[in-house]
Specification:
This protein is of the alpha/beta class. The protein contains eight helices and nine strands. Helix 1 runs parallel beside helix 2 and helix 4 runs parallel beside helix 6.
């Protein structure tokens, strides 16, 4: 039985990494996936992968930090599908530097995408979901939101903010039939980690009780569970998918 059969799901940043894995997983479970991304080339690659597996997906451009493009995305979804069942706020960026060296632009860029973007997408998605009386909103946090991380003032602030907003929205939107949760990945093998030296990657893996890094597919599985009816009584939760890093 397909867990997301005939549900409309928009996934931001679905062109690569965890977003791509989530789009592929959702499509395999029967969802109509909207690949919402800034990078058309990678987004169309995700669409092609899904369609080769007989899944259903469409691409729509969005810059989650820009209200106009977010507004156009959800206008498109409303006009094309007349409903929205699932939003996954996955889009995010890194601009790492220590507090001493971090430039204002580095701080602002991360907050704009990772925090403002989640706010904008959720606000407009919730409007559609309230009208139909149902929906699921999922957002990407991170385990670093729990314990901090050297050189990531901006990123940690954004991911901690996502947790705070998730809990507020879970309280506000539950009466409208909307569940709101977050996923906090640990050390995951993605495009973001591809440029990290093997020695550093091994040090990261050694910090994990399971002694390995996670995969994008393992995060996608968590999103799929939370989006499905199997998680129908889970609301306001932050699910750590981290191999036991945060215990």
């Amino acid at each position: 039985m397909l867990r997301l059969k005939d549900r409309v799901a928009v996934i931001t940043g679905a062109g690569r990494g965890i977003g791509r894995a989530t789009a592929i997983k959702f499509a395999a479970e029967g969802a109509q996936v909207v690949i919402a991304d800034y990078d058309e080339t990678s987004a169309l690659e995700t669409q092609e992968i899904i369609e080769k597996e007989s899944g259903s997906a469409v691409f729509h451009f969005v810059n989650v930090a820009e209200y106009e493009t977010v507004q156009e995305l959800f206008r498109y979804i409303k006009e094309k599908f007349n409903r929205l069942d699932i939003l996954v706020n996955n889009a995010g960026i890194l601009r790492d530097a220590t507090l001493k060296k971090m430039e204002l632009d580095q701080f602002d860029d991360v907050i704009q995408v990772n925090l403002r973007g989640v706010y904008l997408c959720t606000q407009l998605a919730a409007k559609v979901m309230r009208e139909q009386g149902s929906g699921v909103i999922l957002s990407a946090s991170s385990v670093v939101a729990h314990y901090g991380n050297f050189g990531q003032t901006n990123y940690v602030a954004s991911k901690a903010g996502v947790i705070g907003m998730t809990r507020v929205w879970a309280r506000e939107l539950a009466k409208d039939g909307i569940r709101v949760n977050a996923v906090a990945p640990g050390f995951i093998q993605t495009d973001m980690t591809a440029g990290i030296p093997d020695k550093v990657l091994q040090m990261m893996a050694d910090k994990v009780p399971m002694k390995r890094m996670g995969t994008a597919e393992e995060i996608a599985n968590a999103y799929c569970f939370l989006a499905s009816d199997e998680a129908s009584y889970i609301n306001g939760t932050v699910l750590n998918v981290d191999g036991g890093v945060v215990i």
